[in-house]
User: Fold CcmD family protein from Fodinibius salinus.
Amino acid sequence: MNFSLIQLQQDTVAAADTLSEAYASKWESSSGLEQAGPLMQTLASHDLIFIVLIVSLIIWLVLLFFIIRTDKKVEQLEDQVEQLNTSD
Assistant:
């Protein structure tokens, strides 16, 4: 029982090692950031978290714009309905 548990742990470690070897060439491409611009160096130094924040900020601003625009349209429709009710 104890031997199979140890063997299972070793197999798991071996699988993780083959995975890191498979993607090693993709991770090496990030080593050329010394020649990149200061913006890319800053973004890469923080694991591109700023890109995620900027995209989420854009989404929130678009949603806010949509809500405000819809509110104005609903307000205009309410005014039209009120005018029709008072004229009757």
Q: What stands out?
A: The chain has a mean pLDDT of 77. Helices lie at 2-22, 24-28, 38-45, 49-87. DSSP finds four helices and no strands in the chain.
